[in-house]
Amino acid sequence: MEHLEILRLLEYSPARQTRKKLIASENLVAELVCYEPGQATAPHLHPRQDEIFHVIEGGGTILVDEAEVPVAAGSVVFVPAGSRHGIRADAGIRLALMFIKGPGAAAHPR
Hints:
The protein has one domain (6-102): Jelly Rolls. It contains one helix and eight strands. It has one helix at 6-9; strands at residues 18-24, 29-35, 40-44, 50-64, 67-72, 76-79, 85-89, 95-102. Strands 1, 2, 3, 4, 5, 6, 7 and 8 form an eight-stranded antiparallel β-sheet that branches.
């Protein structure tokens, strides 16, 4: 069993987004990522991993293939395996989100 207090783990850096591994198993990986305004993760894809993003606080945009999805606290976005996706925090606002990917770390090392 794992129990985490996500809001206590939020940590921002002006140098670059911060990532914290939350859970890693054979079946899934979960991480917390915090972005200062304007920070981004470049578009990329996972050939065999579905991914779910849950926005914890702030706002931004999640790019999925050709779509730009505006997100805010409470938003959940599902990205199927093979879909190109990226994330950026809006200007003037932080963004914190948790992502969950499966299958997990043992099946697909980073």
